[in-house]
Amino acid sequence: MPHLLRQLPVSPTATMHDTRTTLRNLPPAYSPAQTPHSREKDFAPQVRYHLELPRKPKFRPCKVIFVGDCSVGKTAIANRFCYDKFQSNYKATIGVDFELENFNILGHNYSLEMWDTAGQERFKCIAGAYYRNARVIVVTYDMSRRDTLDSAKKWLASALNYNTSQRPLVFLVGTKADLLTKEEFMRMERLAGNAAAEIQAEYWSVSARSGFKVTELFQRIAALAFEEAVKQQLGSLKGTTQEQATLASVKSQTFGNIFH
Ligand SMILES: Nc1nc2c(ncn2[C@@H]2O[C@H](COP(=O)(O)OP(=O)(O)OP(=O)(O)O)[C@@H](O)[C@H]2O)c(=O)[nH]1
């Protein structure tokens, strides 16, 4: 029987003291010019207020899927973040791999369920089944292979096909930044920045080999997904006494700040 779901060892438990996974502010985007969330400088005031209410809200794990051509480095970035390790020998993902990473954001537990799907064509129909109900899509390309950037749109379209009700957060991530000269790097970032704008994705360049921007990327994914989850809770509370109380209080705090 083919081993479709290769489960790696359980990731180290995040603790309150783990600076990688404890967030008190919204981490910045890779580049303010290459994100659809450029106006958000920190968690919204109503989000912070909602989390301070005595009744502790609970959050479902957030499903994050990694898609992109084979060998672009999807497994490598997940391994760098979850285990701080890098393997230079290539072992193709068979079907999908799964990782769970726990965060503590503004004092609340929040988990990312990360589904690292196979880039090889022959596994596409299997991986597709894991695209459903993704809250975040990470479209990955290899910065040293232009053709993998050209495929990005196709990968996103195929992942969005399985997520028709609500558009997930989308990230376009260039990997293997360590393989490029400065000029190549800047040229590829320009091209990829345009591609990211076209697909309304936030752009990041990373290197799993050196660790460049990997932690920052995952922190940003967790924080934006968490903020969206809180806003959804606030949306579903709309019309209730609690929501009215929240909004009234935020308004008075905001105007209070303006006038004092
Ligand atoms: N130099 C360099 N090599 C990398 C980097 N990330 C991944 N690689 C190498 O690229 C190859 C493919 O990496 P994987 O992470 O397995 O790629 P993948 O996208 O998961 O591949 P599939 O499982 O086929 O979809 C491996 O040999 C890695 O060592 C990086 O940041 N820098």
Describe the structure.
The protein is of the alpha/beta class and 260 residues long. The chain has a domain at 61-235: P-loop containing nucleotide triphosphate hydrolases (Rossmann fold). It contains eight helices and eight strands, in the order ββαβαββαβααβαβαα. It has helices spanning 45-52, 74-83, 124-128, 146-150, 152-161, 182-198, 214-236, 241-259, and strands at 5-7, 22-23, 62-67, 96-105, 108-117, 136-142, 169-175, 202-205. Strands 1, 2, 3, 4, 5, 6, 7 and 8 form an eight-stranded mixed beta sheet that branches. A hairpin with a 2-residue loop joins strand 4 (96-105) and strand 5. Bound molecules: guanosine-5'-triphosphate. Keywords: Golgi apparatus, GTP-binding, Hydrolase, Lipoprotein, Magnesium, Membrane, Metal-binding, Nucleotide-binding, Prenylation, Protein transport, Transport. It comes from Drosophila persimilis (Fruit fly). GO terms for molecular function: G protein activity; GTP binding; metal ion binding. This is Ras-related protein Rab-36.
